[in-house]
Amino acid sequence: MITNTIHFHMEPTGHLDALVPCLQRMAREPGVESIMVLGCDQDNWPHEGATRLFRECPLPVFGGVFPQIIHERKPYSNGTLLVGLPVTAQIAVVHGLSDAHADLDRDLAQAHAAWPEALENNTVIVFLDGFSSRISALIESLFLHFGLDVNFVGGGAGSLSFEKKPCIITPNGICRDTAVLARIPLVSRIGVTHGWEPISDTLKVTSSERNIIHTLDWQPAFEVYRRMIREHGGQDITRENFFDIAKAYPFGISKLDSEMVVRDPLMVVGDQSLMCVGEVREGCFVRLLNGTPDSLIQAATQARAIAESQCTDGTAAPALFIDCISRVLFLGEGIHRELEGAGAGMPLFGAFTLGEIANTGNDYMEFMNKSSVLCLLDMAQGGVP
């Protein structure tokens, strides 16, 4: 039976020299068995120093470096949050997420074999490089090897500068183009929402390559996207102002019997193609989405309600909140309202990510964009240690 609580320590400066003693103290805290580290990209840790720090940690350590992080229902662009877990995390690392020759199935089969006990009543936290080009292949392999036996939750790390750099924290240091999986013996309850609504007819993705859409209904993707935005809001989106306008106009991939999976266009590439966060399969059907600050804030509140509806005792549990960084860019100061709605009455911590990962043990696992994932960790019910 898990009876201890999660320990939190926020190091506000983001300086690696200041983090060293904090991590050492957390590792000595009574009841702390493993440590999640949530860092901020703006702090620009020196790679060698950060790798040495995490390699020397005496406890299992995992995490990521994100555009922003969340502590006590507040967003931070600087600083590092240490989350001391009262359970031992079993950690697996998958490298080469953009390497077409990397055998992700083999790597995940090895991870599965290293976790021989039953996965029921466990949670796997997944952080991955949000700019890797084979994220969907990783998600499919996770589902193939682990199925619906376990809840998955997590998101994409990285920088809003779009520079590809080390951002995944593992026991062997800080890496790029990598995923870290941390299996923890805790029951979790998960709610997933986004708050975006369709504003266009259905479009077929007639040509795409991984996370790049070339054509929609056999027309250049950017030409179609630009036309739909002009018709809806009267704005003229260009390569130069793309990010500012596109944050309000994601795509939604249609799914049977479930909420659409959101894909976030990042930039125009080549002549008329669109690069997205996450893969968009050729032949799938999408619609253009739009939302309002109120619809996004209400959705985050609904994510909390969905997770709470699965709890039986009604007690406040620590809540890991994985929220898309583009929601911060869209909401501005309204992000404080979203965090209050998602975390009212509970310890809320987490990260603003480049893509979100979730399943609930019942639904197919997805890599999403512009979505809110709230995961309640039940400290009274442990799985198999």
Tags for this model:
385 residues, globular, 26 strands, 2 domains, six-stranded mixed sheet, alpha+beta, single chain, 9 helices
List the topology elements.
Elements: E1 7-11, H1 16-28, E2 34-40, H2 47-55, E3 61-66, E4 68-71, E5 74-76, E6 80-85, E7 90-95, H3 104-114, E8 123-129, H4 135-146, E9 151-157, E10 168-170, E11 173-175, E12 178-184, E13 186-193, E14 197-198, E15 203-209, E16 212-216, E17 219-220, H5 221-233, H6 242-246, E18 251-253, E19 261-269, E20 273-277, E21 285-290, H7 293-308, E22 319-324, H8 325-331, H9 335-343, E23 348-353, E24 356-358, E25 366-368, E26 372-382
Parallel strand pairs: 2-3, 8-9, 22-23
Antiparallel strand pairs: 1-6, 2-6, 3-10, 4-5, 4-23, 7-12, 8-12, 9-24, 10-11, 13-26, 14-21, 15-16, 15-21, 16-17, 16-20, 18-19, 18-21, 19-20, 22-26, 24-25
Helix pairs in contact: 3-4, 7-9
Can you describe this structure?
This protein is an alpha+beta fold and 385 residues long. The protein folds into two domains: 7-194 and 295-382, no CATH class; 197-290, no CATH class. It is 25% helix and 36% strand. It has nine helices and 26 strands. The chain has helices at residues 16-28, 47-55, 104-114, 135-146, 221-233, 242-246, 293-308, 325-331, 335-343; strands at 7-11, 34-40, 61-66, 68-71, 74-76, 80-85, 90-95, 123-129, 151-157, 168-170, 173-175, 178-184, 186-193, 197-198, 203-209, 212-216, 219-220, 251-253, 261-269, 273-277, 285-290, 319-324, 348-353, 356-358, 366-368, 372-382. The strands form four sheets. Strands 1-6-2-3-10-11 form a six-stranded mixed β-sheet. Strands 5-4-23-22-26-13 form a six-stranded mixed β-sheet. A six-stranded mixed β-sheet has the order 7-12-8-9-24-25, covered by helices on one side. The longest helix has 16 residues, at 293-308. The chain is globular. The N and C termini lie close together (10 Å).
